[in-house]
Structures are given as C-alpha cells and as structure tokens.
Design brief:
The protein is an alpha/beta fold. The chain has two domains: 254 residues, Aldolase class I (TIM Barrel, Alpha-Beta Barrel), CATH 3.20.20; 63 residues, no CATH class. 37% of the residues lie in helices and 23% in strands. The chain is built from 14 helices and 17 strands. The strands form four sheets. Strands 9-10-8-7-6-5-4-1-11 form a nine-stranded mixed beta sheet, sandwiched between helices. It has a three-stranded antiparallel beta sheet with strand order 12-13-14, with no helix packed on it. The protein has a three-stranded antiparallel beta sheet with strand order 15-17-16. Helix 6 links the parallel strand 7 and strand 8. The mean pLDDT is 95.
Length: 366
C-alpha cells in the first residue's frame, strides 16, 4: 500500500497551474493536519488493507508541502505509522520550493522521516521564472540543494519544464546543464501543457502568447533524452530520469497499478478496480469534515475493458513496457519498423519517439 497526502496551499498560483490549490498568505497548517488525520481515521479499518497493513511509500505533494511546519509533517508520519506501520527504509518524499528550504528546515524534515525531496526548480532563467509566476530566484536553487545535502537528504529530485513559448527565447540546454551541475539523483522533465482556466490559457486567448510549436517540443524532448542518457541517467518513464538505484518508488507504484490511498483535497485513491476521489477545494473539504461528513466526491468501479486500457497505458509509459502477449499484435510490427517500439526478451516497450505518440498508439490498440 502507498500513501499520497495532498497539501493544497501555495503562496502564489503559477501561470500554467490547474491543480487544486488554495493561495494563502497565512496557511492554516494545524487545521489542515487535523482534517487530514480525521480523514485518515476513516481508512484505518478499510478492508483494502487486507494482508498488507503497512505503507511502502509516503508522498507529500501539492500545492506546496514545504509550507507546512516540519513538526506537522512529523505528526502526520507518526500518526499514520502508528496505525499502519511504515516499512523500514520506505521512500518518504516531500515536494518543496527552493525558497522554502534552509538547513534548519531541511534537517527538521529529515528528522521527521523525510528521506527524499522533489525540488520544484522549473528553470534557472529569471525571465522564465517571472513568466511562470514562480516565487523563487535562480540563486535560491543551489542554496536549497546545498542545504538539503547538508541535512542528509541523499535522494534529491529536480523538476524542470520544457516546451515553453518561443518568444521567451528560453535556453533549454543551459537549464539542463544547470540542473546537472547540481548532481541530482533524479530529474522529472515535464512538457508544458495548456490547461483550461489557467493564466496561461487566458494569455493565449488574448493573443498575448502562443504555445510552443510541436516541432520545438519534440526536439527538446529527444535532445533531453540524449543529454541525460549520456550523463548516466536512466530514462525509465516518459517524464522521469534516474541515476542507478534512484527511481521514484512511489510514482513507480502508480505505473504498476499498486494500491494507494490519497488524503487531502482532490486526492485520488486506487484500490483494485475501484477509483475514488475527494472534494477538490480546501474549503469544501474542511467544511465536510467539520460536519462529520464524507469527503469523497465520487467513485468508479472500472470494467475489465477499462482496467485493460489502464494497464496498457501505464505499462507503456515505462521502459519495462509490457509482456508481448498482453499487447494486441495488429500494429506492433509496424510500430517497430517505424522506430516507435522495441521487442526485447518477450517484452514490448516504446522508444522515446514512441512515447511522443503514447496517447495515439494506445488508442489504436485499446
């Protein structure tokens, strides 16, 4: 079993963000933790635990989990570990913004049990950071990395975003070089997507900017694969690269369709063929728990065909791919001839060129 805890609070909404967040000058951190633990109490006796009552990973995502006081993160980990043990050596990840990190806070996170940090860098260029509405500066990134290392965080991931509008004249190669210079153990490289109801979408609708051309997106994706592979990173999933031994255990559990519980506003849970999700907004989530009501906004029982589609999509996201007999044979040889897929030791996996076409290829065999 794996646990995801969604911390919705942010100091500012990024221009591209459509996540369930609550922008707060003063974060109601203690109340938030109280509410999450009230929700957790409803899970403690859930039959989904079965014969595996322990947690293999815990992931604090957001939002900006680094806005919580370290002692509150410790309280959450202590409480969930007391009722359902956290296995020895479990990966415990905290997402953090560079401007929230100093040696004291990093040491407190480590003392609370956090052993992996995912740092939201996104870019090293000041103009790009301002365009994204990020709250940190370029100079705060290496300072944050140094603080985390000094505190004993030995598993460090950096996030970057590529595929930005051309008018920004962003130097993607320089950003990759800047990330590599900090010797991270893991890199998550995300292509910018334009979502409804975001500041970025409003800019596009008003003609103030245009999405990056598809050719530029493709070029940067493939160039990133080449550069990071040459630097010793394993491109093990569409958006993720790791040095040997540092793959993200929590996210890998999703791609294997392992069971997981989600706590907090908008969090999702996946248990066998059941999918459920919480109320999206913090205010609604808080109010429901205050009234003693369920925070579940919806649930779905997946049919066999839906489970099959999920298995194909998630399996083909990873470098392990899927056993050949589980993939419909029709178009496979054509994909291999086109350079989109490889066959190796009875398994089929997509190449980087195939990952660029993942949605279309899965739709063809679904």
């Amino acid at each position: 079993m794996h646990l995801y805890i969604h911390v919705p609070f942010c100091a500012r909404r990024c221009s591209y963000c459509d996540f369930a967040i609550a922008v707060r000058r003063n974060v109601p951190a203690a109340l938030y933790v109280q509410r999450v633990l009230e929700e957790w109490a409803t899970w403690e006796e859930h039959p989904a635990w079965g014969d595996s009552p322990t947690l293999d990973t815990v992931y604090f995502g957001g939002g900006t989990p680094s806005l919580l006081e370290p002692e509150l993160i410790g309280k959450l980990l202590e409480t969930v570990g007391r009722s359902h043990g956290i296995v020895s050596g479990a990966e415990i990840t905290l997402e953090a913004n560079p401007d929230d990190v100093d040696v004291k806070r990093a040491a407190s996170w480590r003392a609370a049990g956090v052993n992996r940090v995912s740092l939201g860098v996104q870019s090293f260029e000041p103009l790009v950071l301002r365009w994204m509405h990020r709250t940190h500066t370029r100079e705060q990134v290496p300072a944050a990395v140094a603080a985390l290392r000094k505190a004993g965080i030995e598993n460090l991931s950096l996030d970057l975003i590529f595929g930005l509008p051309s008018e920004l004249e962003r130097n993607w190669e320089a950003d990759l070089a800047g990330a590599l210079a900090l010797t991270p153990d893991h890199l998550s490289i995300y292509g910018l997507t334009v979502e409804s109801h975001t500041t970025l979408m409003h800019w596009i609708e008003r003609g103030e900017t245009r999405p990056a051309p598809e050719s530029g997106f493709v070029e940067q994706f493939l160039a990133t694969h080449d550069r990071l592979s040459e630097s010793g990173f394993d491109h093990y999933e569409v958006s993720n690269y790791a040095r040997p031994g540092y793959r993200a255990a929590h996210n890998s559990a999703y791609w294997r369709r392992a069971p997981y519980v989600g706590l907090g506003p908008s969090a999702h849970s996946g248990l066998g063929n059941e999918r459920r999700w919480n109320l999206r907004e913090w205010a609604a989530y808080d109010s429901a728990l205050e009234r003693g009501e369920s925070v579940i906004a919806g649930r779905e029982l997946l049919t066999q065909s839906a489970l099959r589609l999920e298995e194909l999509y998630l399996g083909l996201r990873t470098t392990e791919g899927l056993p050949e007999p589980t993939v419909p044979a029709g178009p496979v040889n054509g994909w291999i001839d086109a350079g989109w897929m490889e066959r190796e030791r009875g398994r089929l996996r997509l190449t980087p060129e195939g990952w660029l076409r993942l949605d279309a290829l899965v739709a063809e065999i679904a």
